[in-house]
Design goal:
The complex is a heterodimer. Chain A folds into two domains: about 100 residues, Tumour Suppressor Smad4, CATH 2.60.200; about 150 residues, no CATH class. Chain A contains nine helices and eleven strands. In chain A, helix 2 packs antiparallel against helix 3, helix 3 crosses helix 4 and helix 4 runs antiparallel to helix 6. The longest helix of chain A has about 30 residues. By secondary structure, chain B is an alpha+beta fold. The longest helix of chain B has 22 residues.
Chain lengths: ~350, ~450
């Protein structure tokens, strides 16, 4: 936009002092600039009417919405005749109110008028260092961890398939597992990439695959370890509440996936993930309580491993049977309670 | 309409299919299926006609009706046993009126259409009998059917006649044979080789002379003309016991509970006394009960995909006690033994765990029974390590009666093992503990 004088040769070009002027940008929610206005004179008036210095077509903006003017103490923002007011930082200026802007001119000032985000950049601004292109294009550069996690997930899934299939059907089961796993992985990562693309203009597919693979492996481990503990040490509680570890892995995965959708708000995303975790766990506990009258997920420890992995000492029959006496008071109390929750007939011999 | 019906039973082999209580609800299909039976009517002997004519005036249909409404909720049969108007029928015919008297009334209807109210005097839940009394005793006297004396035993093959009102169609007499007592029944029952249908429950079975030898109670729905009668001796005992009793006006749960308490005590004693069968597994002693009042079925399965081979045994009691909304008072013992030598330790452990997990410990709806409460641990049986789970459920309307379930898995071999399950319905807590111990202690290595 700077004017060039074509008649002057480059080396003889006279030095013309063009003052560095502030710029008012209209930006998207992810910070991309849609329009930029060089500001050559104060006051600057912004609104929907065409007689403003900057005219916006946002229906939530008043004809004359705000004005930025140079007072003796520095720049001042004034909200004009507007219902919606002007948002600056965490604060909302109502029509007729004003506020000084000159506290720190090294940072751009962000305003919201109606639904339009505005950014005022001033000459004294301090710039952040340049971001390397590759890191900005995708959130991952190193493929090592992704490949490692992928290999671990494939190994763990194949082992589970081997465990659950008979020798003659193993290869077929493996094929079915591979098909299911790759289709679901593609759908999962594809949907996240689509979400990233919608909000950040980049798919971040590498990042999503990495998160998915690491989370899947963590989930497989979190699924198996409590079962082993509950058998080995005869801790039914480990199997009962092992699902909480699974939820934790799920919430962490949610956080890291979201990070590639809304990178600017990690604290909000941590809150979302934590909320999802707490909600999921509470709902599961509540559901268990309704279904089985107890908060744990399993009525009894049902994970049998090879006998050599048992560490807990067996008890004599007498002691075990004497220990049943404690159940009587609990049963008698529950027999007097009105039935709540699910009244399902679980099986055995159903009557009528 | 739901005719009160003889309780259907299934054979041990079909135990998994469950019991079906009322299969013969009146329907077009059944009406057709019964059509050929009409031709049999012509072959009814002269004595059947004589027996029916003699018994006709003592025979009644018993209807349970909703209070304040005309609709009947169930129908059965019964007969007069005293000149004062006492009537014998099955407990299951009047169970709704006995357990929920605030909602139901009882009436009887005679063969000539006379209808009058009824009261319940006494019940015998264990033998499925009830003693009623006609409500119009002030105005008339009644003919009573005589009982055949206990000493005069019938011979197998003798003709007997069962009377009642099947499916509310009309009063009927069906002819059949006496076949002695049912084998392996916990309480004595007569095996009647004739057809019983729903609605005939509580009707009398008479000998040639028109004397009562038993009361219609049940039939097998998986067989033809395999039916059951309660021996008359229990009806005479009930009549003696309850002849002068005041009418029952409140829900009969205390009586039901007291009788089930007596049952569980006898059941526990007899079960523990009979011990276990020897030689049930090459490596372990696995609990399998003798065939005194239980029936066992076994089977084996060799994997066709190179997996785990399996053998099973399933022992159940034929006798169930009907307690209104559910059956109670039976024991079942089953086990499966697995051979995973072809698949190795890890895969075997996965199969073992899957089978161990695939067990339900809930039986009845939440308004009838609590959810299970369980204890579990590793058990040392003279060096043999077991994983045992014991779950108990309490009955809500039968205080101090519990269901016991024990699940056991052996954990001494890396690629073979046995899992057993033991279920007892309706025992007190002390007997539940005794039975659990009796069952778990049955496991040990063969000497």
């Amino acid at each position: 936009m700077d004017e060039v004088t074509p008649e002057a040769a480059p080396d003889e070009r006279p030095e013309v002092a063009v003052p560095i002027v502030p710029v008012l940008e209209v930006v998207d929610r992810d910070g991309q600039v849609r329009q930029a206005h060089r500001i050559t004179a104060w006051p600057l008036r912004v609104g929907r009417a065409l007689d403003n210095d900057v005219a916006l077509s946002d229906p939530h903006v008043a004809p004359h919405h705000l004005q930025i003017e140079m007072a003796e103490s520095g720049l001042q923002l004034r909200a004009l005749d507007t219902w919606n007011g002007v948002q600056i930082g965490g604060k909302r200026l109502r029509g007729g109110e004003q506020q000084a802007l000159n506290d720190d001119d090294t940072q751009p000032i962000e305003l919201i008028a109606g639904r339009t985000r505005l950014r005022l950049r001033r000459p004294g601004e301090r710039l952040a260092p340049e971001l390397p292109l590759a890191a900005a294009a995708t959130r991952t550069r190193r493929f090592g961890p992704t490949l490692l996690a992928g290999a671990a997930v494939i190994a763990a899934l194949s082992f589970n398939t081997w465990l659950d299939s008979d020798p003659d059907t193993f290869v077929r089961s493996l094929g079915a597992m591979a098909l299911t796993a790759s289709v679901s992985a593609a759908i999962w990562c594809g949907l996240w990439a689509l979400l990233s693309k919608t909000f950040t203009r980049q798919t971040h597919i590498g990042w999503h695959i990495k998160v998915f693979l690491i989370a899947s492996f963590a989930w497989l481990v979190a699924d198996a370890v409590p079962d082993l503990l509950s058998f080995s040490l005869s801790w039914p509680g480990a199997g009962d509440f092992g699902f909480i570890a699974g939820y934790a892995v799920g919430a962490a995965a949610l956080y890291f996936h979201l990070l590639a959708v809304e990178p600017a708000k990690p604290r909000l995303l941590r809150g979302v993930a934590l909320l999802a975790f707490v909600t999921g766990v509470s709902l599961s506990l509540w559901f268990n309580q309704q279904r089985t009258d107890r908060v744990g997920a399993e009525l009894y420890m049902s994970h049998l491993f090879p006998p050599a992995l048992r560490l807990a000492k067996p008890v004599p029959v007498d002691r075990f049977v004497d220990g049943l006496a404690g159940l009587q008071a609990r049963l008698d109390r529950k027999a007097k309670e009105a039935p709540v929750g699910d009244s399902g007939n679980g099986g055995g011999d159903g009557e009528e | 309409m739901k005719p009160a019906c003889p309780r259907g039973r299934t054979s041990g082999r079909l135990a998994g299919a469950g019991l079906v209580a009322c299969v013969l609800l009146a329907s077009a299909f059944n009406a057709q299926a019964q059509a050929p039976a009409a031709s049999d009517a012509t072959t009814v002997s002269l004595s059947a006609r004589k027996v029916y004519e003699q018994a006709r005036s003592q025979l009644v249909q018993i209807r349970t009706v909703l209070k304040g409404r005309a609709s009947q909720t169930s129908v059965g049969s019964g007969f007069f046993v005293s000149r004062e108007g006492h009537i014998i029928t099955n407990f299951h015919v009047v169970s709704q009126a006995a357990l929920k008297p605030e909602q139901h009334d009882l009436v009887y209807v005679t063969a000539d259409g006379r209808e009058a109210p009824l009261t319940i005097l006494q019940i015998d839940v264990l033998h499925d009998l009830a003693l009623l009394k006609a409500g119009d005793t002030g105005t008339r006297s009644f003919d009573a059917l005589p009982f055949r004396p206990e000493k005069r035993e019938l011979a197998q093959g003798e003709r007997i006649y069962s009377l009642g009102n099947p499916l509310d169609v009309g009063f009927a007499v069906t002819e059949g044979t006496y076949n002695g007592l049912v084998k392996r029944s916990f309480y004595p029952q007569i095996f009647f080789g004739g057809a019983l249908s729903a609605g005939m429950s509580g009707g009398p079975a008479l000998d040639n002379e028109g004397k009562v030898i038993g009361i219609n109670v049940a039939r097998r729905i998986d067989g033809e003309q395999v039916s059951f009668l309660v021996p008359a001796v229990f009806a005479t005992a009930l009549l003696e016991r309850g002849r002068g009793a005041p009418p029952l006006r409140t829900p009969a749960y205390p009586t039901v509970t007291a009788q089930l308490m007596a049952h569980q005590s006898e059941l526990t004693e007899r079960f523990i006394k009979q011990g276990w069968k020897p030689q049930t597994h090459p490596r372990y002693r696995v609990p399998v009960p003798p065939d005194e009042f239980m029936r066992c079925w076994g089977g084996s399965e060799v994997s066709r995909t190179g997996g785990m081979d399996m053998e099973r045994s399933d022992c159940v009691m034929d006798t169930h006690i009907f307690a209104g909304d559910f059956n109670i008072g039976a024991i079942s013992v089953r086990h499966e033994s697995y051979d995973g030598s072809k698949i190795g330790a890890m895969r075997f452990a996965a199969r073992h765990a899957q089978s161990f997990r695939n067990e339900s410990f809930t039986r009845l709806r939440a308004e009838l029974q609590t959810k299970p409460q369980c204890n579990e641990d590793f058990i040392d049986r003279k060096g043999l390590v077991l994983r045992a789970v014991v779950c108990l459920r309490a009955y809500k309307k039968l205080p101090q009666l519990y269901d016991l379930s024990v699940l056991v898995a052996t954990l001494d071999q890396p690629s073979a093992g046995v899992q057993g399950r033991f279920d007892v319905q309706g025992v007190n807590f002390a007997n539940a503990q005794r039975l659990a111990q009796h069952y778990i202690e049955a496991y040990e290595w063969m000497k």
